[in-house]
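QA checklist item 7 of 12: single-chain prediction sanity check.
[x] sequence parsed
[x] length recorded as 196
[x] structure emitted
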Amino acid sequence: MRLVGPNGEQVGVVRIEDALKLAQEADLDLVEVSPDSKPPVVKIMDYGKFKYEQAQKLKEARRNQTNTILKEVRFRLKIDKHDYETKMKRAIGFLKTGDKVKAMILFRGREQSRPEQGVRLLQKFAEDVVEFGTVESTPTIDGRNMVMVIGPLKNKADAKAEANAKKDALKRPKGGDTTSPEAETPAPTEEESSNA
């Protein structure tokens, strides 16, 4: 079997007994790295440390993984202008953070006989948020509802990175302002300190 040393150096092809002896002398484990190769490859390493590092890499990968969430904004066919603007601002906030928005119109009673008004409202909504997202699915009727999905222009990772950059910029002091508050107030002179 081919042996790789603890620092990644190639030892060469050795017998298993010799590899085990070298691992015991180094007080490390002998781990089979590539069993399918001819001859099999084994490595001398601290297996517990290796497993810990693998777990940390997986944890970091999960932390950096971004999940796009489908957020929902509901309208009525006869929505007031102010309510519409509020819903639109909320949807823009979702799109800025990289989430998809599902715009839904709820039809009640006779409103179901006028789906073209729902299409017009959803098209107006899509035009109002066009600088933050694009229409992924056109308005479709789903029972008593009409649904349209709008996807963000920025993906979630980019939006998160941009938000973190803004946060860091706010934390940093303004350029050139490196003086501390103590440095701004002069120390009392001998006369002032004796009068006090």
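[x] summary fact logged: The radius of gyration is 32 Å.
[ ] second reviewer sign-off
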